[in-house]
C-alpha cells in the first residue's frame, strides 16, 4: 500500500507542474499561463477608439470577433513602445473575453514545478502584487509570473466597458 501511495504522490507532483508562455517587455521576462493563450499574431494596424485609456491601442476584427488590443509596455510604464517584426500580439481567452496583449517578443513555453515558483516581493510598483503569481526561476533566468485573468478583469483595464465588447 505504501508503494502505491508513493506512486500516486509522484504522479500528482508530475501533474502539478505548470506551463507558462514567456515573453519580454523591455529588459524583463514575464510569463502567463499557457492555458489562457488562444494564438500568437504579428502586430497589425488597429482601429482606435476614442476615450479609452492610452494602453488600449484599439480593436481588431479577428474572424468576426472584435478584440481589444492592450499594449502592456504602455500599461506598465516601460518606456515608449516600438513595433517591429518581433512585436507579438498574444490573443488571450480571459474571463470569458478575447483580448489581445502586445508584447515585445515571445520566447517559449516554460514548464515550472511549484518549487520553482517563489512568492513575489511586496513592492510599490505599477504592477501591484495582486496581479503577480510569483517569480519563476529556471537556472539563471527569472520570470515575472502574471495572473492574466486578474489583470485583464481589473477595473483599471477598462475592459468591462461595453463600448469595447
Automatic annotation (TrEMBL):
GO terms for biological process: chemotaxis; signal transduction. GO terms for cellular component: cytosol. The keyword Nuclease does not apply. SUPFAM superfamilies: CheW-like. It is found in: Cytoplasm. Keywords: Cytoplasm. InterPro entries: CheW, CheW-like_dom_sf, CheW-lke_dom. The keyword Cytoplasm applies. Pfam families: CheW. PANTHER family: CHEMOTAXIS PROTEIN CHEW, CHEMOTAXIS SENSOR HISTIDINE KINASE-RELATED. This is Chemotaxis protein CheW.
